[in-house]
């Protein structure tokens, strides 16, 4: 791609807007890198050699984003946006889209992405960003998400597109397709950490304990990143299947592995999990680390999960403070998403404070036609507190429409166990409504999902007890009906 002329580097294909071969080599290595901290170091080296190297700044921005340095990332993307006139038409459009996305102005970004995909249909970039939009929890359209992620993988079958497609397939419970995808990736790239993660996800969807344990053991021997992946998914599986005692032991290991891999998002998730588990036992909850709070303060994408976590753990602070910090950004933003997610957090805060009517008022327009389970779940809580049980049941039903969400640790809420426990909550609502058939259905679904759970979980004990009582009532009613017919 390069030839030397008069001591300068001349580009013969995709322009990188630099004349320094050393800068380009550092940039190329940064683009190909797997670890975000290494990508940051390489991109900064490229910029030291050529401060006007715009593409290197873009790589730096997204590597910083991966490390949880969201504000620093946004600043770099703004610098790229300001220099976009130095870029080619294709790269200029990318700079505009990146800037819009980093500002959470997804509506405008979508319009640009449509235009980009029409102009450059063989470029995976646009489809990959549409996958991220689903993964970040701002879209509930699984079919469309799968279509985008498949196209992204077809055009560029790398570890990023593999991870995106694996995630959306897991949301649909497609274990066989995840396994097939992993094997296709292995044929192309070999059995690396990303391929082994996909195979582990397939085992988790099947709830195949022996395969899960074997896959995690293999990953644990490979690298810091692989250990973070293994402990993360193992903890998520324990939570989703009700193995809460084992999860309490596993959570610190997951946090340590994430630390070693410099994976702030997984570290943040493990910390929230530890606090939730401690709250369930009545133990004093550990405080969130400053790194985790920094991520929650800087990234709007973590705010919805943090808000629902706060409701589940009945913790008012630091949610109230986080809302105040994000409100500064809200005043400058033209993004609908920013306003909606801050309103969602405000609704959650009202729930924690016992202001159910306020929560209902805030959450109703957000839940309407959104399809996002977290919004239906929290509105259901508000309605249940107001004793509007039929309406609450409808919201919970919508939140629980997809049973496969429990397998994904980042879905709706930081702790996968909540997705399963919500079934128990819905069963109780129908029980109070004397809707025996629906109550029995949800109690059965809950106990089946947690058939291998810890036997001392209070909700599980109560559900099994009520199932016996409901079946007893059903038998009594059948006997009475038979006697009446005889008479």
Write a structural description:
The radius of gyration is 25 Å and the shape is globular. It has helices at 21-32, 36-49, 54-66, 70-82, 89-102, 106-119, 125-135, 142-155, 159-171, 175-189, 193-206, 209-220, 224-240, 244-260, 264-281, 290-298, 303-313, 319-332, 336-352, 356-367, 373-385, 389-399, 417-432, 436-449, 458-486; strands at 2-5, 8-11. The longest helix has 29 residues, at 458-486. The chain has 487 residues and is mostly helical. 48% of the residues are buried. The protein has a two-stranded antiparallel sheet with strand order 1-2. α13 runs antiparallel to α14 (244-260).
Please give a quick description of this structure.
By secondary structure, the protein is an all-alpha fold. 73% of the residues lie in helices and 2% in strands. The longest helix has 29 residues, at 458-486.
N to C succession of SSEs: EEHHHHHHHHHHHHHHHHHHHHHHHHH
User: What is the molecular shape?
Assistant: globular
Helix tally equals 25
Number of DSSP strand runs: 2
Round the mean pLDDT to the nearest integer and report it.
87
Our estimate of the beta-strand percent is under 5%
Helix/strand/pairing category: mainly alpha
Largest beta-sheet characterization: 2 strands, antiparallel
For the biggest β-sheet, the strand order reads 1-2
Describe the oligomeric state of these chains in a short phrase: single chain
Radius of gyration: 25 Å
Distance between the termini: 94 Å
Percentage of residues in helical conformation: over 70%
What are the segments in which pLDDT stays under 50 over at least 5 consecutive residues? 1-16
